[in-house]
Design a protein that fits this description.
By secondary structure, this protein is mostly helical. The protein is built from twelve helices and no strands.
């Protein structure tokens, strides 16, 4: 796990605060705009409220919310039921072409969110619990981005970078959380495998959402995610004692490249957010 550890330390050195500051809120007009009837109207009118309920339960970190866990759980359960119902309706709905890509991403993201939600309540592993909370964090943000993209399409406009970037920025934060797991002196091979699996899933999400308004940034994002995926896949096999497509020397070299790409990605993202 030495190569993994060095990579994660390099990523962690950038600081979670720097990336967290890039997170933005969803488009407030998405819930108030006059939208077309049907599933798109339902997504625009209701999803942000559902996401708030889910996030409030899983990302609770205040004394007040901790005293309301039972009520917050009930609210999150209801929200997930309604989100999943929306996804079922959306998957078979006939929508205008301008909505198609955002609706398809919405369906995929809700399915992934539901999977992490269900695993959270069935696993007995504290490591898995932590990983699924990270997934829920960035997947709810991905869905927030989907809503913003639908809202822009409803207006026949292009979503601003600030509204699009929500999901991608949250994914970077979640990746730093995965990184911290390997910085622990008690990190085991099983933790290393799980952390790399989480990274691989996060990278897949990044590529799927590399459809923002800045084409250069989309390319930068995809290149980083594809390289990180290659590393994660090989490191999982190393830790399992199996032959990997890359050698350890090649992984070590690509680690250096990926760390530089990560830093460049955060720098570009910060500049684009400030530019608005």
């Amino acid at each position: 796990m030495s190569f993994s550890l060095r990579r994660f330390v390099a990523l962690g050195a950038l600081g979670a605060t720097a990336i967290s500051s890039l997170l933005v809120t969803t488009d407030a007009s998405a819930a108030t705009t006059t939208a077309p009837q049907g599933i798109v109207a339902s997504i625009l009118g209701n999803t942000n409220g559902y996401l708030t309920s889910v996030r409030t339960y899983f990302l609770c970190n205040t004394a007040k919310c901790k005293t309301q866990r039972s009520a917050l759980l009930k609210s999150a359960q209801g929200a997930m039921t309604k989100l999943s119902a929306q996804a079922v309706m959306a998957s078979g709905a006939s929508v205008q072409q301008k909505y198609r890509s955002a609706v398809d991403l919405f369906v995929s993201d809700v399915h992934l969110l539901a999977k992490s939600y269900n695993v959270f309540f069935t696993t007995t592993s504290t490591v898995t619990l932590s990983g699924e909370v990270g997934n829920i964090f960035y997947l709810t943000s991905d869905i927030g981005t989907d809503v913003n993209m639908l809202s822009a399409a409803e207006k026949s406009a292009t979503a601003t970078f600030n509204l699009w970037v929500e999901g991608e920025a949250a994914t970077l934060v979640a990746m730093q959380t995965d990184a911290s797991a390997l910085q622990s002196s008690t990190a085991t091979a099983s933790i290393g495998i799980f952390a790399n699996q989480l990274l691989e899933l996060a990278c897949t999400s990044m590529v799927a959402h590399a459809n923002g308004p800045n084409k250069s940034f989309n390319t930068q994002l995809t290149t980083f995610a594809n390289n990180q995926t290659r590393i994660a896949q090989s490191e999982i096999l190393f830790l399992q004692g199996k032959k990997a497509p890359m050698t350890e020397v090649e992984v070590a070299s690509l680690n250096v490249t990926v760390s530089a790409q990560f830093a460049a990605l955060v720098k570009s993202e910060t500049a684009l957010v400030k530019k608005k």
